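Hey, resending since the last one bounced:
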Amino acid sequence: MRPLLPLPGLAPIASPPGSPRGGAGPGTTPLWQLLDQAAQAVQAVRAGASLGDVLARVPVAQRPGVQALSFHGLRWLGSATELRALLAPKTPAPPVDALLVLSLALLWPGEPPPYAEHTLVDQAVTAVRHRAAPAAGFVNAVLRRFLRERDALVAQVRKGTLGAFNHPLWWVERVKRDWPQAWQRLLASANERPPMTLRVNARHGSGADYVQRLAHAGMAASLLPGADLAGQAVHLNVPCPVPQLPGFGQGDVSVQDASAQRAAAWLLQGVPLAPGARVLDACAAPGGKTAQLLERADLDLLALDSDAQRLQRVQETLLRLRLPAAGTAARVALRAADARQTAAWWDGKPFDAILLDAPCTASGIVRRHPDIRWLRRPEDVASLARVQAELLNALWPLLKPGGRLVYASCSLFKAEGQDQIDAFLQRQAPGTARLDPTSPGHLLPLADNGSAEVGSPGGGAHGGPFTHDGFYIALLHKT
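The structure tokens again:
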């Protein structure tokens, strides 16, 4: 499920610091400096860099503002790029072009701008004076022309696929082919701000109790329905910085989307796993699902990941949540290894259950990581699908007869979901593998994701008053 590229965390985005008039009060960063660094981030993503890597190099005090501006710019990058081509057909130097495109995205009518129009224009011109002074007049003229002719220019840009949907053409065509009844809504949802969903540590309390605890702290929240969520998933009405969550440092709660919570939960569906059951969490980093399994059951769990550095995050997560819990039969071991190379890490003892958190395009979580759509290439889908098939082929023999395996990917693309599982089942000997008919299947980031097209057999059970991330979840039984 996790993307192959390092990406920024899932915490909510703070509003950019600075005065609404563009000035800077004591201890704040001037808007022009935030625009300059956000433009550098956009330029780096256009050159193939991960936004997470870029943001990690931004000073901590400036990071929330730079992240908010760069997220906004990347969400509307397609429209802004087409707009710049209309206003200035000759492409300027990359640093100037990135600042110009970012500024146009911030002025685009897709969502309320974080600053007044005249402030944005003034501060963008100030930023370009510090980076490429001769281009200041050019940037000023382009931005002011857009404000004068905005309605006509926006209408013209929206006639094209890139300007209308803010995704590469190949991505639009694939979503359209996979989801012909919902493709436009899916592309639009990728530019929405994601909800903030919490997972309450089942060993520390219930979701209902935590909702009351949030209320006492002045934070409105609601408990999410669904038997698979086990009363531990909470929707926070207004996102907040993670450290402000009551009991976060004590391990009482984690941030995890409802779809991701369902992926691990389905390993525990049906007949309960006996205390001490052997479980493999393949591709475990950063550890959210590993922790969720240990919160809800006493398991002998092996958390495996090919990236030793990312595996350290699993350890940090378990320490914060105080897992495995003292006085229980639960145990956990962490190991860095390629799950496909079973001879290098498997001890020969079969597993009762396996969670395969498969590497994928991450096309279902674009609203949280707006750089994904610009970094992926069409060939990535087939390449990642091959890796997913290799993982399924390698791990299935390690499962006991009567055992269960959950395959999950945070992708909208059927090649990484239903098509992948259909092909896997066809490769198995007749009668040896069965797809549980109650599996969620494809969960789409739409408010009505219990519809027939989504393939969610529980109807509204998988929907709700807000949207989950895009996911695919399949429960397989070894018969």
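The longest helix spans residues 378-395.

Sorry for the duplicate.
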